[in-house]
Amino acid sequence: MADSSSSLLPLCERISHKSYILRIVDLTILVLLFSLLWYRILHMCENNTIWLVAFLCESCFSFMWLIITCIKWSPAEDKPYPNRLDERVHDLPSVDMFVPTADPVREPPIIVVNTVLSLLAVNYPANKLACYVSDDGCSPLTYFSLKEASKFVKIWAPFCKKYNVRVRAPFRYFLNPLVATDDSVFSKDWKMMKREYVKLCRKVEDATGDSHWLDADDDFEAFSNTKPNDHSTIVKVVWENKGGVGDEKEVPHLVYISREKRPNYLHHYKTGAMNFLLRVSGLMTNAPYMLNVDCDMYANEPDVVRQAMCVFLQNSKNSNHCAFVQFPQNFYDSYTNELVVLQHYMKRGVAGIQGPIYIGSGCFHTRRVMYGLSSDDLEDDGSLSSVASREFLSEDSLVRKYGSSKELVKSVVDALQRKSNPQKSLANLVEAAQEVGHCHYEYQTSWGNLGWLYDSVAEDTNTSIGIHLRGWTSSFISPDPPAFLGSTPSVGPEAIVQHRRWATGSIEVLFNKQSPLIGFRRKIKFRQRLAYFWVLMCIRSIPELVYCLLPAYCLLNNSALFPKGPCLGIIVTLVGMHCLYTLWQFMILGFSVKSWYVSQSLWRIIATSSWLFSIQDIILKLLGISKIGFIVAKKNMPETRSGYESKSKPSQGEDDGLKLELGKFEFDSSCHFIPGTFIMLVNLAALAGFLVRLQRSSYSHGGGGGSALAETCGCISVVMLFFPFLKGLFEHGKYGIPLSTLSKAAFLTVLFVVF
């Protein structure tokens, strides 16, 4: 319960980041884009079809920049003051923490263990926390790793709290050697902790290669004769906190779950796993708030739970309408500068409207909202309205919405009415938890229309827009240091596959009932709708691909692409301003010119390839030819067993932390690299043809007396943008373009040049 005294300082405050200078720059670029379009219209009759194609592409770019300008118009974020929480709140609310994993090979259990350890050791009363790990792969190795982690955390959590350790994921904490100190007790404890962690890593690694330990322990009997896609529900209470007083030596609950899967049942991938987590946690602990993180996204800030609670418990604003608190998605082991910049400007912009978009990890949810409540269902004091009570609390409605489990229905009623959850023995609730994990449990219920929403592999965006459509707001907190840090696939096939899934799921949202294109009477602000439309506009890859080919086409056909005379200054000013603007955005966050250039190049490669193939996936789905699957992105496995002494470093703000150098782009024979190779080869062919004509002194501009300087510069710019592919032509091994990819792209290039 929060203290209602108005004399106390607020738990959080809204920080505005409005900048009139940035608004002027955004508007200037927008005016230049519209000026270019107007010039195209005035001279459309004087030019050929290529002028119309350029106009359509530039119209798309102008529309996108208009949306971006609207989104960035009033950036904001919430700043929490967790140090004020104790004097304002006498009884902190409970929080359930969700960690989903699906494949012990692509998501190594030791990474999951580190994420769980960081969550169990946060600065929050242990009797108010519970951690649930959903294993969609039904792996005994994952369960074994969690059992070993539950032993280690009993010494790790007290150590972190005693010495106020900031990084509470051991594999990151022990990357740094022990600093010489006069505190001999700390040195002794540090060395002991390092030894115990190395033992934990060794046990997990040894168990990976030897499965005989399964037969020696009856606790693993449930995993016998199981397959990842064919097994019964498994619920295991790995550790139960029976103390219940919040002592610093206590450890929160830790529960392992794996829902039933059968080959002939639709299980909805990660979304179905999240809904199973929602049901099981509701039965066992029923905390009013829930944190979900990816299995590789560890808590980098010990006070992260307290920071989120500052927003939910703030009395100076109507916290009843805040559905979730989203933290940025930051990474420590890959090249993600573009994502950091994107979050800094775009996410803050969206946060200044109706709130940030849920991004699938690092997010605190409100249980009542996930159970389907709208903002209009609450009275001013946060209690259910009479209309909502009749809709949600009638017996028939509860069974129809949430299923036939009496225990679950009772927990839902308690959650909707904000009743405190009495202490229960988790072991006594295992059978009820198994019941709500059966394949048929969701049949003829509202699951998928409440909880995490189905109908898209991008469950985060789909669920987020569903929440905002019901009138809820959300909050964005961007602390320094980052609250969560995770790993990303290396830039290459894995990264493109992950982005392809994101893009495919986003396009799916455009065609389902959550689409921002429909339902204009819903309770979502117009600019928030534009923000979702921008996120979902993966189809922009088509005009980007076409525009990259236009300079080459014009050089090969002696035709004009860009304005002539003084009006060429529109293009030059536009490109120059955009480059300087994005460069400034990078440098203001501590990145170098080199990191800006590399990021622009690699991001364009990933985006173009993933978006193109996501459009292909959607077309095949709409035609009924194939279904869209959920591919788990491979997480980076530390190279050594002795504490993760890897070479990876935080990427944000440090050039030497960049894992990938320009030209060290890893290729394989995947078809994902064909578009980038094709674009690069076409522009090289056009430049070569132009040089041959120039040497023969027979080249003349098709536009009537002008030079081809602008089109030549355009080709050179495209080649520089796809520079890793140019390097790949002269490399061998994993950094060279494979012959199969090169031959396919070359064939397409020949067709383009000839026809």
Automatic annotation (TrEMBL):
Mn(2+) binds at residues 270, 294. GO terms for biological process: cell wall organization; cellulose biosynthetic process. GO terms for cellular component: Golgi membrane. InterPro entries: Cellulose_synth, Nucleotide-diphossugar_trans. The active site is at 136, 460. The keyword Transmembrane helix applies. The keyword Transferase applies. It comes from the Eukaryota. Keywords: Cell wall biogenesis/degradation, Glycosyltransferase, Golgi apparatus, Membrane, Transferase, Transmembrane, Transmembrane helix. One of its GO terms (molecular function) is cellulose synthase (UDP-forming) activity. Its main location: Golgi. It is found in: Golgi apparatus membrane. UDP-alpha-D-glucose binds at residues 107, 136. It is a multi-pass membrane protein. The chain crosses the membrane at residues 20-38, 50-71, 531-556, 568-591, 673-692, 704-723, 735-754. Thought to be a Golgi-localized beta-glycan synthase that polymerize the backbones of noncellulosic polysaccharides (hemicelluloses) of plant cell wall. Belongs to the glycosyltransferase 2 family. Plant cellulose synthase-like B subfamily. PANTHER family: X-BOX TRANSCRIPTION FACTOR-RELATED. This is Cellulose synthase-like B6. It comes from Arabidopsis thaliana (Mouse-ear cress). The lineage of its organism: Eukaryota, Viridiplantae, Streptophyta, Embryophyta, Tracheophyta. The gene is CSLB06.
